[in-house]
Amino acid sequence: MSQSNGREPGRRAGRERHRGAVTLRRQAIPTSTADQRLLDSRGRSDWKTRDAWRALRILSEFVEGFDTLADLPPAVSVFGSARSGPDSPECRLAEELGAALARAGYAVITGGGPGVMEAANRGASGAGGLSVGLGIELPFEQGINDWVDLAIDFRYFFARKTMFVKYAHGFVVLPGGFGTMDELFEALTLVQTGKVTRFPVVLMGTAYWQGLIDWLRDTMAADGKIGPVDLELICLTDSVEAAVRHIVEAEAALSAEQEAVREEAVARVAADQRDAAEAADERDAADSGGARES
Questions:
Q1: Mean predicted confidence (pLDDT) in 157-172
Q2: What is the distance between the alpha carbons of residues 46 and 155, in angstroms, rounded to a whole number?
Q3: DSSP state string for 86-155
């Protein structure tokens, strides 16, 4: 006699999808994601009735992210392929990196999935650091890895991507695919345009990234599409120690700049107050002199 463990025949445990606070399994999993439905321009007839509610759902994702991550310690976002095997060079590097960042006092933020993300979370958690995973609803099975201490599941990529930047002091990018490239070039664009300041971007894996760096220099920069200084936004290394040092030094430089700005502002206010006091003294002296003459 077969054992069903209380389940109906054909109701075996299978894949699941997280959609915000909701967990879906088996037949309940829809054939499309919230992002797909939002960006599908073919279903315009239901925009007036559905998009207003979507706007509230999008707002709720930002509120949930801001509220959950507001008290996060200094953090670094780590990106890389979900397809990398546990014994791959990039996963070994990611685990070492996660541990080094934790020892330097940083929380580690990843997409919460397998591969490089899981390795970085494992390294951070094993070293006693805070390991954060920002998951996303995808058409294929993924889920949050077991090494994440604090997890948020998002429906919308743009809400999730905001959290990667807002709560990070820098990015470290290991070998990956389209999603990894997307995060890399968004970070570079934000730094280049001044939307974020002194935001270190580290590429780890010189053999993997060198071709991209060569193309950026020899084609994009050579053709004037970016400036030579833009290439300095990227730190390329194979060294975990160098990567962490680059992030720490960038944070220290930013802190020094901010302190200098504060000191300049205080000095300017003090100077304005002195000038105002001297002007008042001169007016009082002039008034006193005029009174004596009369």
A1: 94
A2: 19
A3: TTSHHHHHHHHHHHHHHHTT-EEEE-S-STHHHHHHHHHHHTT--EEEEEE--SS-----TT-SEEEEES
Count of Cβ atoms closer than 10 Å to residue 229 Cβ: 9
Q: Is 203 helix (H, G, I), strand (E, B) or coil?
A: strand
Strand partners, 171: 77, 201
Place of tokens 């992030």: 247
- Residue 224 has a pLDDT of 96
pLDDT at 52: 74
Give the Cα separation of 121 and 148 in Å (integer). 6
Strand partners, 24: 17
Q: What is the pLDDT of residues 195-251, one digit of tens each?
A: 887 789 999 999 999 999 999 999 999 999 999 899 999 999 999 999 999 999 988
The predicted pLDDT at position 160 comes to 94
| pTM confidence score | 0.74
Q: Do the strands 201-204 and 171-173 form a parallel or antiparallel pair, or are they unpaired?
A: parallel
DSSP of 140-172: S-----TT-SEEEEES-HHHHHHHHHHT-S-EE
Which pLDDT score, from 0 to 100, does residue 279 have? Answer: 78
Distance from C-alpha of 94 to C-alpha of 109, rounded to nearest angstrom: 12
Q: What is the mean predicted confidence (pLDDT) over 174-180? A: 96
**Token digits of residue 8:** 């109906």
CA distance 26 to 287: 89
> How deeply is 122 buried, as exposed, middle or buried, from its count of CB atoms within 10 A (0-12, 13-18, 19+)?
buried
Q: How many helices (H) and strands (E) does the chain have?
A: 8, 9
